[in-house]
Design goal:
Layout (H helix, E strand, L loop, with lengths): L2 E7 L17 H14 L3 E4 L1 E2 L5 E2 L2 H14 L4 E4 L21 E5 L3 E2 L4 E2 L3 H13 L3 E6 L3 H11 L8 E6 L9 H14 L4 E6 L4 H10 L4 E4 L6 E3 L2 E2 L3 H14 L3 E2 L2 H8 L6
Parallel strand pairs: 1-2, 1-12, 1-15, 2-5, 5-6, 6-9, 9-10, 10-11
Antiparallel strand pairs: 3-4, 7-8, 13-14
């Protein structure tokens, strides 16, 4: 059985504790929540950090503290930093890449979000890609639109990225790409043409989390994504108790599709990453 990498996006920049008290915000909460998710089967963690008022932060010290805690308590787990833009100074979005996480998210184009434009100008994208290459950080290409695949291809052609990034199709964000299977098929077919060596997954936002997970597993994805960044509920009437609970549900879904959950070592091999120190 081909193993499946489970990514847990523990915090994000939008949900707040008032919406779900289980959301980890402080450094210690993030490390503890990641450890619980790791024990439940997650092998990759996607990290945002927060200021004391819960606003999104670019502080390298916070990223460093979270990374150190995860590497101590979750041996071999893949650490991925967010370089996303909501609530963060654009000039600081790559300021933590010198810490050499295993991976970092990279959006290769702008898109509409519910109330703002998520801006990713070409110069910023190239700067982030350059910093990732210099620090041996594997990009995860966040695809909110078909053109973002071609943005990634241009980075490969410019020598700013190898031809085997990890690609994530983000579906269900209001004003961006709807969560529909036919659109996933269009994107996946284009990926096979534009970046045939890439690994891939899909992320369903909010109520679409479980549906998109089912869709990508039925199409032999390399990974699935879950976590309180994307979805704070189990059902309409029940909040998720933790990131670990969402990971356990993801693991059950993986098993249902005749696959098995990847270990940290298998996840690194599947994504072409160096072995853990």
């Amino acid at each position: 059985m081909k193993p499946v990498v489970i990514t847990v996006a523990i915090t994000g920049s939008v949900p707040r504790k008032k919406d779900n008290p289980a959301l980890p915000v402080t450094v210690s909460e993030q490390i503890e929540s990641t450890h619980e998710a790791f024990e439940a089967g997650a092998s990759l963690v996607h990290i945002h950090v927060r200021n004391p008022d819960e606003s999104s932060s670019s502080d390298p010290k916070l990223f460093e503290q979270v990374q150190e805690g995860i590497r101590k308590h979750c041996p071999g787990m893949i650490v991925q930093f967010s370089t996303g833009g909501r609530g963060r100074d654009q000039a600081a979005r790559g300021s933590s890449l010198y810490l050499k996480p295993d991976m970092a998210s990279l959006s290769t184009g702008s898109t509409n979000f519910p109330t703002i434009v998520y801006e990713n100008a070409p110069a910023l994208v190239e700067d982030l890609a350059t910093k990732m290459k210099e620090n041996d950080v594997l990009p995860e290409i966040e695809v909110f639109d078909l053109s973002h695949l071609h943005g990634a291809k241009r980075l490969v052609e410019a020598g700013l990225m190898n031809d085997r990034p990890h690609v994530q199709f983000v579906m269900g964000v209001k004003n961006a790409m709807p969560a529909e299977q036919r659109l996933l098929d269009i994107l996946l077919n284009e990926l096979k043409v534009v970046l045939p060596n890439a690994t891939w997954t899909g992320a369903g936002i909010g109520r679409y989390q479980s549906e998109v997970m089912e869709w990508v597993l039925s199409r032999e994805a390399d990974a699935v994504r879950t976590g309180l960044e994307d979805n704070i509920r189990i059902t309409k009437d029940r909040l998720a108790a933790s990131n670990a609970e969402l990971v356990r549900i993801a693991a059950e879904t993986v098993t249902k599709h005749g696959r098995r959950v990847a270990t940290a070592a298998e996840a690194r091999e599947a994504l072409g990453l160096r072995a853990a120190a």
